[in-house]
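Prompt: May I have another protein with tokenized structure?
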Amino acid sequence: MTTRLSPAHSAGTIVPLNEPTAKVDRRAERRASRREQSRTEILDAAETVFGEDGIRDGSLRRIAELSGFSAAALYLFFEDKQQILAETLTRRADEWNSTIQGVAEGDSDPLDKLHEIIDASTRFFDERPQFRLLLRHIRGGPAVTGPALAEFATEVDGRYFEILKRVATIVKDGQSAGRIRKGNERSIAHLYSVMVNEFVLLATSSAEANVGTLTAEEFHEFVDGALRAPSAGRQKS
């Protein structure tokens, strides 16, 4: 290791000279930061394209245009369209999972937690309108998403399964406390999640305007009536 004498060399103080290594580390950090920023910009563009054009018709060319890269440059960051779609979904799933975890770990009554998740989900999708549009396309089912995701499907599904498990735990806790009706907690969690998803996805749907939607208060009442144990009274906050 190269050393140099400090200004206090008369006292025999030796200072290690690591400047070349430090410069290399800083350059590597800057490169990694720029690469991560580029990936984020591509995924933001992909979310918009898949949301507006659909999974099948969303093109790499338009993703490249919106993100400011050439189509060929996208392959410096992702293997193919399938991986871009998968990571577009998994990054939001991770954020959503974190949101649900925050509610699940709170001190609220289990039934109240399910109401909190409704409000949190509404805010989540209001802040991410393009992701909302993307999920509306995914509602087309495996015939649409299966071929598009291919080998990434298991990874994507795993993220959303973690969210479902957190909800099932809340349901089970509520059943133990006599607040939530009896029944298989995973089935109840699944039905609850479907209701919440449909509510937040229908909220701004022009294509299904003939179906209509409920107000937030009406939906809370609907869910409460569906999940509350017959012997448990409604506890409004």
Q: What stands out?
A: The two ends are 65 Å apart (CA to CA). Residues 137 and 214 are 21 Å apart (CA to CA). The chain has two domains: 1-78, 79-237.
